[in-house]
C-alpha cells in the first residue's frame, strides 16, 4: 500500500520535511512523493517510480512521481510559475487515490496566495479543492487529531462575527453525521461518543449569554439522540478539554475555528494531524503551514508530517479492509 504525498508549496518546508519523513518511515510504510525532484534538498537520494514500485524503492531512496515544474526552488520565496504545477500535483494525487493505485493521500502545506497569484486558484484552501475534485456536491469536514484529542470545527475560516449566523442546525447536523460516520468507518469506533460545544460562554448560561444553545443546538442534539447518537452537550467549551473530560468522548464538535484548534495545539502542538472527513478517499496533512521563515534553514520539524503519513496509512488500510 502506497500513500501519495503531494509536494505542497516548493518554497516552503514541504520538500525538506518530505525527505525527513521518508528517512523516519522507510521501514514502516510506502509513500510516493509527487513533485519536482529538483526541489528536494541537495544530496537527497530519490528514485523515479510509480505507486506500485514505491514500497520497494522506499528502502533505498525517496520514491518520486517526477514532474518538471520548470523553475528552481528558492526557499522562502514563492514563484508564481510553480502554482499551476502545485495544483496539478494535487489533482494527480486525487486521481491516484480515487483509482485505488494509492491507498491514501497526504498533502504538504500549500500557500493559498501563491496559488491565487500564479494559477487563479478559486478555493479557500486544500479542503474545499479536494471536495470539488471528489465531486458529488460533498461538503468536506475538517478534523484535527492527535493521540489525546480529536476536534472538529463546524465553521472554519470565517470571521468570528459571522459564526452565529453560519452555525445553522443544518450545518451542525451535517458536521455531526459526517464525524460519526468517519469515526466508525475510518477509526474503527463502533459507537462514537461526541461532545458538542456551545457557541457562547458557559454554553449560553440558560439564555443569559446568548440563545443559540436553546434555540438551535439543544433541539438538534435532542433529535439526533432520538436516532441513537451518543451526544453530550451543548457544553461549556472551557470545561471540555482537561484530561478527565477528554476521556468521556471520542471527538469534540466545536462551533468555530479557534474553539477547536487552541485546545489541540495546546495538548500536542507538534504531532497534530489534519484529517478531511466526508471524502471518498482518505486525506491527511500536517497541522502547520509552509513556514517560509524555516525553509532552507535545516530547522524544519517533520513530526506532524510523519504523524500525518502514519495516520493516512492506517486509515487507508482500515478503509480497504472494510471495503
Describe this structure in words.
Helix content is 37%, strand content 18%. It contains eleven helices and twelve strands. Strands 3-4-2-1-5-12-11-6-7-10-8-9 form a twelve-stranded mixed beta sheet, with helices on both faces. It has 323 residues and is α/β, with parallel strands linked by helices. It is globular. The mean pLDDT is 96. The protein has two domains: 1-140 and 281-323, Isopropylmalate Dehydrogenase, CATH 3.40.718; 148-267, Isopropylmalate Dehydrogenase (3-Layer(aba) Sandwich), CATH 3.40.718.
Key terms for this structure?
323 residues, alpha/beta, Isopropylmalate Dehydrogenase, 2 domains, twelve-stranded mixed β-sheet, 18% strand, globular
Q: What is the strand content?
A: 15-25%
CATH superfamily of the largest domain: Isopropylmalate Dehydrogenase
- Evaluate the radius of gyration: 20 Å
CATH architecture level-2 label of the largest domain: 3-Layer(aba) Sandwich
Summarize this structure briefly:
It catalyses: 4-(phosphooxy)-L-threonine + NAD(+) = 3-amino-2-oxopropyl phosphate + CO2 + NADH. The protein is α/β, with parallel strands linked by helices. 37% of the residues lie in helices and 18% in strands.
Secondary-structure blueprint:
Blueprint: E1 2-6, H1 14-25, E2 30-35, E3 46-48, H2 54-57, E4 62-66, H3 83-99, E5 104-107, H4 112-119, H5 126-134, E6 141-146, E7 149-153, H6 163-166, H7 169-185, E8 193-197, H8 212-226, E9 230-235, H9 243-246, E10 251-254, H10 257-267, E11 273-277, E12 283-286, H11 303-322
Parallel strand pairs: 1-2, 1-5, 2-4, 3-4, 5-12, 7-10, 8-9, 8-10
Antiparallel strand pairs: 6-7, 6-11, 11-12
Helix pairs in contact: 1-11, 3-4
Amino acid at each position: 500500500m502506497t500513500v501519495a504525498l503531494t509536494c505542497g508549496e516548493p518554497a516552503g518546508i514541504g520538500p525538506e520535511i518530505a525527505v525527513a519523513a521518508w528517512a523516519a518511515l522507510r521501514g514502516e510504510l510506502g509513500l510516493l512523493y509527487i513533485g519536482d525532484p529538483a526541489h528536494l534538498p541537495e544530496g537527497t537520494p530519490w528514485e523515479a517510480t510509480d505507486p506500485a514500485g514505491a514500497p520497494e524503492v522506499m528502502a533505498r531512496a525517496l520514491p518520486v512521481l517526477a514532474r518538471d515544474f520548470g523553475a528552481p526552488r528558492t526557499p522562502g520565496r514563492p514563484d508564481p510559475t510553480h502554482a499551476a504545477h502545485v495544483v496539478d500535483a494535487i489533482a494527480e494525487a486525487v486521481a491516484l487515490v480515487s483509482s485505488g493505485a494509492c491507498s491514501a493521500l497526504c498533502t504538504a502545506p500549500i500557500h493559498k496566495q501563491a496559488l491565487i497569484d500564479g494559477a487563479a486558484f478559486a478555493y479557500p484552501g486544500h479542503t474545499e479543492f479536494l471536495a470539488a475534485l471528489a465531486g458529488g456536491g460533498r461538503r468536506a469536514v475538517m478534523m484535527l487529531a492527535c493521540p489525546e484529542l480529536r476536534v472538529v470545527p463546524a465553521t472554519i475560516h470565517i470571521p468570528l462575527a459571522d459564526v452565529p449566523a453560519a452555525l445553522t442546525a443544518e450545518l451542525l447536523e451535517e458536521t455531526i453525521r459526517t464525524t460519526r460516520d468517519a469515526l466508525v468507518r475510518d477509526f474503527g469506533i463502533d459507537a462514537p461518543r461526541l461532545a458538542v460545544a456551545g457557541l457562547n460562554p458557559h454554553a449560553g448560561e440558560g439564555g443569559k449569554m446568548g440563545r443559540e444553545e436553546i434555540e438551535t443546538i439543544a433541539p438538534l442534539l435532542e433529535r439526533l439522540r432520538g436516532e441513537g447518537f451518543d451526544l453530550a452537550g451543548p457544553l461549556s467549551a472551557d470545561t471540555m478539554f482537561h484530561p478527565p473530560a477528554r476521556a468521556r468522548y471520542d471527538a469534540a464538535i466545536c462551533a468555530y475555528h479557534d474553539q477547536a484548534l487552541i485546545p489541540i495545539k495546546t495538548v500536542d502542538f507538534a504531532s497534530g494531524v489534519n484529517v478531511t472527513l466526508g471524502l471518498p478517499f482518505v486525506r491527511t496533512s500536517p497541522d502547520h503551514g509552509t513556514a517560509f521563515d524555516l525553509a532552507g534553514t535545516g530547522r524544519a520539524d517533520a513530526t506532524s508530517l510523519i504523524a500525518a503519513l502514519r495516520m493516512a496509512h492506517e486509515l487507508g488500510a482500515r478503509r480497504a479492509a472494510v471495503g
